[in-house]
User: Fold this.
Amino acid sequence: MKNNHVQYDYRGARVLVTGGTSGIGAAIAAAYKAAGATVTITGTRPAAQDYDHDLSDYRYLSLDVENNAQIDAVAAAQPELDILINNAGIALPSLGLDEWDPDTFVRAVTIHLTSGFRLSRLCRDALARSTLAGGGSVVGIASMSSYFGIGIVPGYGAGKTGLLGITRSMAVEWGALGIRANAVAVGLCESRMTAATIANPDWSAPTLARTPLGRLGVPADVAGAVLFLTSGQASWITGQTLPVDGGYTVSG
Assistant:
């Protein structure tokens, strides 16, 4: 009997989820919306109507995280903010790009690290004004590549590794402002970005074999962890990274 599902109350909370149109970001946005929050999502297309699924429950802002002016505009559009989820990202090899090329490497680090830092820093003052139980929160979406090398994605891995470090720095620097910063390190989870990886048994089969819980993740697994970390129940947790990976990182 599944009778222990937690129902959070985020009524009155203002949440920004980057990359919230699909996959993990969409699940996080939907979970906050279901809990009563007012949710803004970002995507790369000019308008919400440009997607083939309904995004009318959200405020939509267009954002290319490689464009500093757009990052600045998104931050300026958040005069009141309680929770920032830095989720936007992409595995550039899925676009046929080689992250061992120095210019592509820089792009990957920009997408997965420096853009999130810029947005967080620009949203800091709004987050500091939060009256949410537990204070304002920043949550970064990290990865198993935050812990070990994956040869095909050196830039992605460097960005996701750096995310752990900047999370700790934000926690230390912004704690006095009442802002908490944490991250979740996601294992192989079903999403549009990982579809090709999951479809390739050379990648997915060894991952499943090493995962104690014996299954891949789904976006809802990540959403539950994120909502906990930004809740009042986690009000004394900051600077931490929570692996959400079915036990992959502790299995030999």
Notes: The beta strands are 14-17, 38-43, 59-62, 83-86, 136-143, 179-186, 241-244. The chain has one domain: 14-244.
